Amino acid sequence: MANIRTIDLLLLDNIFDMGSGYVLNFSDRTMAQFFAEQLNIDIDAPVYQKEGTSKAKRLRCFLKTVDAPTAVRTLNALWEYREALRQNAQREEIVANAHGRLLEIINRLQGRPSHVQAPAAPAFNRAKAAQLRAELIALGNLPPHPRGYAFEKFLKDLFDSYGLAAREAFRLRGEQIDGSFLLGTETYLLEAKWHGAPIGNGELHAFHGKVEQKAAWTRGLFISQSSFTEDGLHAFGRSKRIICMDGLDLYDALTRELPINNVLERKVRHAGETGEPFARVRDLFPS
């Protein structure tokens, strides 16, 4: 059974417009059709009517009754439908950080740390997100040499906050690795740069060479605070074993309260579907 809390249901009420017994723009017929076609589920089954027969009451009962994987599939499907409606109508988002807060619920249902654990944690640990964002901004005031080490420490703290089992920088024979972390079951090596100019093709290829010398399942994440040159990304090519992230991505993710593991998963999926190593957070998570 999915561990849906009262505070989760309050947020879901706001996200999916469930305040008056409705769910988004569904009628009884179209809601039944959506659940049947998208999820192979009979939402009209009597077991989901224990708290009432309105669409909202049936959905709440359903989410509290089914197992966690089913609840996660349902929330993802409803979010995709909601976003299609909103973007088609060109409506502004009215729920603050809606997607990030929904992903926090999904993370918890999947057994992942939603953020640094604290007593009576809210749906999103805004204090920690604000602290990380402030630390990221403050790094810009440090001299170059200590800033590089501080940037690596910041990234380890960020990754650990989302249960990515980060490891600090280490040295192998003839090379320096800025760190590593686990995303799902895959090991990612980290290259972190805070330079004045965007990263070009040479540094991308150098890091990709480090990754290729490791086990076949090893992947890489290149984080460049100053981003990457268009020519460099073009020359680097497609279908590589690394994904890229820049300083604006970090700032956007923290500001919009998007869990970093979900950001990385979306980047991995984009790279897998397009072959492109870099896509901005604001393009992957349109507001």
From TrEMBL:
GO terms for molecular function: DNA binding; endonuclease activity. One of its GO terms (biological process) is DNA restriction-modification system. It comes from the Bacteria. It holds the Pfam family Mrr_cat. SUPFAM superfamilies: Restriction endonuclease-like (SSF52980). Residues 148-252 form the Restriction endonuclease type IV Mrr domain. This is Restriction endonuclease type IV Mrr domain-containing protein. It comes from Stigmatella aurantiaca.
